[in-house]
């Protein structure tokens, strides 16, 4: 069987992990997935969330696969008791818990039933976080631009990044919603996305691109910016919540 560790990466020690789920079949599936990934070592499994802290005192781990809905102590409650050195990947049968996972700084959340492909993608995210090297010193040159010019029918309109709320793709054009105006352009949303700083703007739907700093709140699969409600597409949800985590 070929190695499941990407080539060209620096190899470090295995990631010690624990699996917590009140359903034995769910534990068996995650253990089977983990045994196919050389960079993981399953240190313990348990169906009782109350056993986790004693386990961690005896056998510290880098990563917990933590079910959210469990009797006695939920995964969200347990996450509040863990130290910052133990990273979390939540597992759940309910997509609505994604926002709760973000609030607890989870690396990822896995929606049951969990495929190996999705499991492996989450493990690679965890590896990047756990084995992340210290940031290199950044040298500053001239400040980056904080605006773009958008082509309208008759002219180029300057749009400041910090005033741009979101971009909405229509059938044959895009509308840029700013704090005090709307600008219509024939430029496609993909081209506009390439002109905007990716640390500030994120694609959340095939028809929407939002300014993270302008988001007022997020509820399930909806983003609220002022009076506007913007849907989060299924294909963009993971990347969106990852961007919110920073």
Structure description:
With 246 residues, the chain is of the alpha/beta class. It has two domains: 15-130, 3-Layer(aba) Sandwich (Rossmann fold), CATH 3.40.50; 147-245, OB fold (Dihydrolipoamide Acetyltransferase, E2P) (Beta Barrel). Helix content is 25%, strand content 30%. It has a five-stranded parallel β-sheet. It has a five-stranded antiparallel β-sheet with strand order 10-9-8-12-11. It has a three-stranded antiparallel β-sheet with strand order 13-14-15, with no helix packed on it. A hairpin with a 4-residue loop joins strand 8 (164-169) and strand 9 (174-178). The protein is elongated. Mean pLDDT is 86; it is low at 1-11.
Topology:
Blueprint: E1 15-20, H1 24-35, E2 40-46, H2 52-58, E3 63-67, H3 75-79, E4 87-92, H4 98-103, E5 108-111, H5 116-130, E6 147-151, E7 156-160, E8 164-169, E9 174-178, E10 182-185, H6 189-195, E11 201-205, E12 208-211, E13 217-219, E14 222-225, E15 228-231, H7 237-245
């Amino acid at each position: 069987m070929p190695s499941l560790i990407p080539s060209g990466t620096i190899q470090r020690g295995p990631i010690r992990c624990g699996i917590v789920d009140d359903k034995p079949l769910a534990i068996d599936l995650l253990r089977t997935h983990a045994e196919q990934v050389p960079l993981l070592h399953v240190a313990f499994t348990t169906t009782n969330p109350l056993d986790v802290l004693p386990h961690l005192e005896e056998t510290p781990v880098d990563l917990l696969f933590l079910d959210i809905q469990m009797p006695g102590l939920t995964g969200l409650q347990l996450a509040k008791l863990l130290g910052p050195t133990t990273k979390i990947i939540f597992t759940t049968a309910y997509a609505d818990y994604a926002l709760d996972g973000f609030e607890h700084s989870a690396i990822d959340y896995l929606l049951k039933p969990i495929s190996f492909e999705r499991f492996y993608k989450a493990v690679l995210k965890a590896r990047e976080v756990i084995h992340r090297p210290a940031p290199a010193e950044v040298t500053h040159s001239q400040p980056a631009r904080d605006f773009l010019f958008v082509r309208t029918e008759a002219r180029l309109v300057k749009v400041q990044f910090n005033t741009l709320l979101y971009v909405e793709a229509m059938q044959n054009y895009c509308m840029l919603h700013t704090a005090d105006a709307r600008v219509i352009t024939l430029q496609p949303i993909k081209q506009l996305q390439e002109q905007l700083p990716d640390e500030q703007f994120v694609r959340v739907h095939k028809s929407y691109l939002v300014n993270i700093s302008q988001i007022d709140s997020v509820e399930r699969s909806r983003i609220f910016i002022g009076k506007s409600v913007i849907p989060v597409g299924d294909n963009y949800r993971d990347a969106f919540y990852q961007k919110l985590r920073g």
